[in-house]
TrEMBL record:
Name by which UniProt lists this protein: Cyclic-phosphate processing Receiver domain-containing protein
InterPro entries: cREC_REC
Organism: Merdimmobilis hominis
Residues in Cyclic-phosphate processing Receiver domain copies: 322-411
Amino acid sequence: MNVYRFINSKDIREHLETIKYPFGSLEAAWIIYQCRFASLEEKHAAWRELIRTMPDCAIEERPNTEAHDSLHRFLAAYMKRETKLLHVFCENDGGIYRWMECQEDGERFEHPGIYSDYAKCYDQISREISDNEDGEIAGYLVTKTYPDAEEPCMQSKLSAEGELLSVRESQAGPDPFEGLFFVFPTPFQKGDIVWEPNTQGYCKGPFVLTGVSGEAEAPGHRRGGDNSDMTAWGYFQDESGNIYHETMWNYMNLEYYRGPLTGKRRVLRALGNCLKGEIDEGLFARAYHAILTEEYAGSLVPRDITKEGMTLAALCEPEPVRLWLDDLRKAPTGYKWCTSVNAAIRCIELCEKAGCTIELIDCDHDLGDYAKDGGDGIRLIDWLAERGTFYRIELHTMNPVGRENMQREIDRYWPARREKEG
């Protein structure tokens, strides 16, 4: 069977095809699982072909994966479970559906509609698909929850064309496939400039590769490692041009970076050539400082013609500030966007230090993954109450329980301020 077509990276796919890499049955099953663009139907068809055409094998017990004496039987049970989950997800049993679009740059935008029928929800997504002429939308995420539940119970991912890619329970533990670890050959060498397309966070954009997890790390990882240990590492660059060394996951998604290396990113080209031995460290150091100095000089704007400079010189008053706390929805025009409670706190403190008036704080409750950085929206309400800064608050959360809890806190503490002012 053609396992290569399920590899996300086109460069790794071409390399493994060139060397005619012989996939084992478990390796092939995992490659199919992790494919980002194959539909659920295509994955199931590929697993069924694997069962018919490739030898059976056992799956050893690992920290996040149970032992199975037959890969074939495991795959059959896995597909049966996914099919059942899909049936429950699409069944009209009183559940509530919401959906959001996932942009190519990693941003997510939740649409306001709430649907009691999956078909109606999908029909609305289909209309959005027909309008996606610019190709900015990478896919869609649909969630299903039930009345009075604080969190979605199930979610499905759709491609930009509307094909079903996956369905899973929101609170499910690690997938058995995530507990596996493999070493695959890659074409990349130290000093190559690579990237993971469309990734976000601390390791986004091109970086200079210094290493990929392989045979040297394999003995321990083969026993206790998992997908998260299939890493690559190298030198990344932040927006200021500074270089930092970091580890990214998963190396099987890496591709050669073919975009322009202009501006501050010229540093990456110089660093890559240094690591390959094409230039020495002294010349790289000269290039690094020359490039950043040149870019910094070109970005300078005289303080006396900027609003910031005029404000610092007390020649004009600072403009009132409006804060928008939300992990998904972009801030409306005129708002400062904060995705976490701690980010909002830092922004408030900076505004207070600069003498800016905070006119409004518009809060969401559920902050998703960003809740790890300070908690959900109600924590900001508590923080403001504890320090006695009773700024005007508005709520735009779609979570009825979260809204009720936040409004209760506001009603409890903010009247004291109104009485004091009155």
